[in-house]
Design goal:
- This protein has about 150 residues and is α/β, with parallel strands linked by helices.
- The chain is built from 5 helices and 5 strands; from the N terminus they run H-E-E-H-H-E-H-E-E-H.
- It has a 5-stranded mixed beta sheet with strand order 2-1-3-4-5.
- A hairpin with a 4-residue loop joins strand 1 and strand 2.
- Helix 1 runs parallel beside helix 5.
- It is globular and about 45 Å long.
C-alpha cells in the first residue's frame, strides 16, 4: 500500500486525483502491475489507477486473467474499476480510504455482491486509510482554494 500511496502522490503532482494502485503476485511477492490516476493527462476517462495497473499486469503476465494476484489501491474502487477487477479475476482487493460517494465495493452498488457479478474477489478495506484519505482531502482543499493548476483548463 505504501507503493500505491507514492503513486497517488505522483498523480497529485501532475494535477490528477491522487489515487494509486499496485498489483502483486502474492506467491512470489513480485509487483506485476502499477498505475496512477491519469484521465486528464491521458485524455482518457477510463485511465483510473486500477485500470492502468490491470492493463500493465495483463501485459506482463501475457494473460487477461489475473487470478492469484492482489490489487492494492488507495481509494475504494468505483463501479467501472470493480467491473474490470471482476473480469480480470483478481483474487483479492485491498483498498485504503472508503469512497461513500463514488465507491462501488462497500458503498453504492456494492458491485461484488450483485448476483450478476461473475467473479468476487476477497476484499479488505481501510488499509492506511488515514494517509490516502488525507491526501485526497488536501488535494481537493487546495483545488477549492485555487492553489493547484488544473491541466484540463
Amino acid at each position: 500500500m505504501h507503493m500505491a500511496l507514492a503513486l497517488a502522490q505522483a498523480a497529485a503532482d501532475v494535477g490528477e486525483t491522487p489515487v494509486g494502485c499496485v498489483i502483486v503476485d502474492e506467491a512470489t511477492g513480485e509487483v506485476v502491475g502499477q498505475g496512477r490516476n491519469g484521465p486528464i493527462v491521458a485524455h482518457d476517462p477510463t485511465a483510473h489507477a486500477e485500470i492502468v495497473a490491470l492493463r500493465h499486469a495483463a501485459q506482463k503476465m501475457q494473460n487477461y486473467r489475473l487470478t492469484g494476484l492482489t490489487l492494492y489501491v488507495t481509494l475504494e474502487p468505483c463501479a467501472m474499476c470493480a467491473g474490470a477487477i471482476s473480469h480480470a479475476r483478481i483474487g483479492r482487493v485491498v483498498w485504503g480510504a472508503d469512497d461513500p460517494k463514488g465507491g462501488a465495493v462497500a458503498h453504492g452498488p456494492r458491485f461484488f455482491d450483485q448476483p450478476t457479478c461473475h467473479w468476487k474477489p476477497i476484499v479488505t478495506g481501510g488499509v492506511l486509510a488515514d494517509q490516502g484519505g488525507e491526501m485526497l482531502r488536501a488535494f481537493f482543499r487546495a483545488r477549492r482554494k485555487g492553489t493547484r493548476t488544473d491541466p484540463a483548463r
